[in-house]
Specification:
Elements: H1 3-19, H2 23-31, H3 36-58, H4 65-89, H5 95-102, H6 105-115, H7 123-139, H8 141-144, H9 150-170, H10 178-199, H11 210-237, H12 240-243, H13 246-261, H14 270-286, H15 300-308
């Protein structure tokens, strides 16, 4: 990879991790007024409409063949299945704990990438993930002591697995422009979420509270359009398991915002947890790979000449 490509990937990686920190908090506020599936479907319907408008302005071509198949599968896993589970889980699970569970995404992505024979198993990636998970757990110790329904916890974990599968699938299909990929994917995801909402009988109502509209606006524009376009930019340059390490940086932002906006308790482990997270991300994703030193041995004839005429 070129130095410029690495810089672009790193900048996009940090930006999407910071901006995505508000997503779990926004979902919590959305769930207070809107049914989970309807709220998720409305979010991605608005985001898809915005991205389709951007496609029209930029005159981006609509994908065909295997590229279209990849975009649709990406949408079904990344937006349909994952957010249906996450929105359901976050009705009972606080934002900090929910994002803690989503920090499993890098490990799940690595294991799935190895299963799909996209990557090799690296001990450093596992060590980085476990170290970061320890930091996230330390950062969110208070919420972890609360009684939370097991089904809600499993729903968020299931969402993490769907995220991981989507990120691995992206690399198995022809490359598509990030705006186009997300426009098609979010359209497919929104269709699945809205259909599921109708099937379960969710009330189809628009928000009345200002804070709900603010949450939906943030989730649609920043948390969907900007964050997922940035993530696909990262995937252009980094392996899926490395790019997924953004999920262990996000909780640091989420817990701070949740403590401020949602009165989520924050323990004294915040600083320790943050340091562990940063160390885990560095080891697993940001540390330059070791390059084996190649020792060049002189040819026998060259060795004899050097002995006769040393320099």
């Amino acid at each position: 990879m070129t130095t410029d490509g690495e810089r672009v990937a790193l900048a996009a990686f940090v930006a999407q991790a910071v901006l995505a920190g508000g997503n779990a908090v926004g979902i919590r506020f959305s769930n207070r007024e809107l049914a989970p599936l309807w709220g998720a479907g409305l979010r991605f319907l608005l985001a898809a409409a915005l991205l389709l408008a951007v496609m029209a302005v930029l005159r981006l071509a609509f994908p065909r063949g295997r590229a279209l198949t990849g975009s649709l599968l990406y949408g079904l896993f990344n937006f349909g299945a994952s957010f249906a589970l996450i929105y359901y889980g976050l009705v009972q699970v606080r934002a900090g704990l929910g994002q803690t569970l989503l920090a499993l995404v890098p490990l799940a992505t690595l294991l799935l990438a190895v299963l799909w024979r996209q990557e090799r198993f690296h001990a450093a990636a596992v060590a980085g993930t476990l170290l970061a998970l320890a930091g996230v757990a330390s950062l969110s110790r208070a919420p972890l002591r609360e009684a939370v329904p097991l089904l809600s916890l499993l729903a968020v974990v299931g969402g993490a697995v769907c995220f991981a599968q989507a990120f691995v699938l992206v690399r198995r299909f022809p490359r598509v422009h990030p705006v186009t990929m997300n426009a098609v994917g979010m359209t497919a995801g929104a269709a699945v979420l809205l259909l599921a909402s109708l099937l379960v009988g969710d009330p189809v109502v628009l928000p009345h509270r200002v804070e709900t509209w603010v949450a939906i606006g943030y989730l649609a524009v920043i948390g969907s359009v900007v964050v997922f376009v940035l993530y696909l930019v990262v995937l252009r340059y980094w392996a899926a398991s490395r790019a997924a390490y953004g999920f262990v940086l996000i909780p640091f932002v989420t817990v701070v915002l949740s403590a401020w906006l949602d009165d989520e308790p924050v323990t004294g482990g915040l600083v320790l947890g943050g340091l562990l997270i940063l160390a885990g991300v560095y080891i697993g994703a940001l540390r330059p790979p070791r390059v084996a030193r190649r020792i060049e041995r002189p040819a026998p004839g060259q060795l004899r000449r050097n002995r006769v005429n040393p320099s």
